[in-house]
Amino acid sequence: MNEWLLLCALIVILCICFSKISAKIGLPALVVFLLIGMVFGSDGLMRIHFDDYEFAEQISYFALIFIMFYGGFCLNLKAARPFILPSAILSTVGIVISALVLAAGCHLLLPFSWLESLLIGSVLASTDAASVFSILRMKKLNLKHGLAPILEMESGSNDPFAFLLTMITLSLISGEETSIFVLSLQQIVFGIASGIIIAGISYLLLRYFKIKEIGMNSILLAACALLSYAFASYIGGNGFLSVYLCGIILGNSKLSKKHELIYFFDSISSMMQIILFFMLGLLSFPSQLPSVAGSGIIIALILTFVARPIAVFICLIPFSFSIREKLFLSWCGLRGAASIVFAIAAVVSTAQTDFDIFHIVMIVSLLSITLQGMLLPKAAKWLQVIDETNDTSKTFNDYLKDTPLHLLDLPIIPNHPWIGSYIKDIQIPSQMIVALLWRNGELIVPDGNTCIQYRDHLMVALTSTHQGIDIELEEIPLSNHKNWIGKPISEIDASHLLIVLIKREDNYFIPNGSTILAKEDLIVACNRKTLMNKDNKSGI
Questions:
Q1: Diameter over CA atoms, the chain
Q2: What pTM, to 2 d.p., does this model score?
Q3: CB–CB of 408/458 below 8 Å?
């Protein structure tokens, strides 16, 4: 027991340390986890024999639940809403087109039957968002408006449809008498229904069932993520579609201490990726790779330069994307964890095939993540899709996590020098602003003429690191309020907002009424009504 615990700890430490090294050379960390798994595997240095595909399938599904839930939870639906339609077409119609084109190429160029070729096309139809965005964030690449949310939504939502297509193909190969239409309809409808129902129940529990213990909300949400998958699968729906939709709904709902939830699932998702890719590397036999290397390379070339571009260009015909943007979206079709997991599902199924689909998909995924991934920054620059004025992180709900804004509770105790003073007259640092006042069980939004009384609690917003209470913020670019430009805050019509922070160029500062708004300013504010209705009684 102790030996296995020691080994697991060393593996995790190695994965994290080598991922930092790989970042310097532009190699995606997921490849590192995979390679470390190979080193520890049957053909590697450590000689750990592992070939239990059924167990690997169960662990893979478990890991994908959290990875997909977190992907949905972090998607900023407000920022992504204008691009839902092209993303939806890419993740549905695009999946089918990509699978069929790849299947045709495999059948024509390789010794595979039509059904075997279709199985390869289905397994490799989904794209990997984790790989793409790890590279974008690592290289700090900000894409032109629309490309980032399209990639995020497409990659998150095409896994369920690729899985559905894989299951349909496997049933055809095994000769099962199943109605494709009924199966597809059942998977989609029940999957969507399950995601909505579980998300609704989870929201009610998190919103109204107050849990005081630190970390319990995160554990409750993790259980809800597992429930959304399990319930959908139990009633015959698509569990991956359910868990992704559940994540989107909850991630875009008003939940208390959402950033704590994001930090928790960010850690869990990272851990799941380490476990998943290490296990996939452990499951592979590098000695078997040369025998299928030729087929894997041909499939990778067809997928990268034929199938994916055809799917992208056809699906985006109704939309006004440039040729350069379509080419970049085509290049971003990296294959990763989901494809390998679906290949494992094919291995453990009752369908009989005459080729090593697992190692073929492994080669394709390695080539895709490594070569396409490492060339992704150069492709973005060459195709001129980088926009330094845009921020790709706004695609995610956690984009404000690094904003240096906190609320500090300042109780007015007996003999406090501020008692009887007006807020405009008290001496506080310029980096602070009195945002709220708690008096006799009532929240008040103060102004300069508010008189401070004994037993008041001042909620002071500041830009240093203090433990504060949770508030919900939104970014408001001045491009949406051009009539505010050049005016002091005291003169603009923003009575519904409490402006607590301004980002000007790369600097944050707390404004006051005399602060004049500039064209390029980004306002960080919260809704006054929301603040007034917020239950902040705990800890005061």
A1: 88
A2: 0.76
A3: no
CATH of the domain at 437: 3.30.70.1450
Distance from C-alpha of 388 to C-alpha of 83, rounded to nearest angstrom? 20
Q: Are 283 and 308 members of one domain? A: yes
* Pair 429, 368 in one domain: no
List strands edge to edge, sheet with 507-509.
Answer: 474-477, 522-527, 497-504, 507-509
| Phi and psi based region of residue 115 (left: phi greater than 0; alpha: psi -120 to 50; beta: remaining) | alpha
- 332 plus 475 within the same structural domain: no
418-425 long-range contacts, CB within 8 A, separation 24+:
418/452, 419/452, 419/453, 419/454, 420/451, 420/452, 420/453, 421/451, 421/452, 422/448, 422/449, 422/450, 422/451, 422/452, 423/447, 423/448, 423/449, 423/450, 423/452, 424/448, 424/449
Least confident of 119-128, 139-148, 372-381: 139-148
Distance from C-alpha of 34 to C-alpha of 11, rounded to nearest angstrom: 12
Helix axes 239-251, 53-73, angle to 10 degrees: 30
SS (H, E, C) 511-531: CCCCCECCCCCEEEEEEHHHH
In eight-state DSSP terms, residue 44 is S
Is the residue at 473 inside a domain? yes
pLDDT digits (tens, 9 = 90+) for 94-142: 999 999 999 999 999 998 999 999 999 999 999 886 677 677 666 666 7
Of 497, 85, 65, nearest to 244 by C-alpha is: 65
Q: Is there a domain that residue 15 lies in?
A: no
Three-state SS letters, 190-229:
HHHHHHHHHHHHHHHHHHHCCCCCCCHHHHHHHHHHHHHH
Q: How far is CA 528 from CA 296, 443, 471, 472, 499, in A?
A: 58, 11, 11, 11, 10
Domain that holds residue 448: 406-533
Same domain assignment for residues 444 and 336:
no
Which residue is associated with the tokens 């002091």?
A: 488
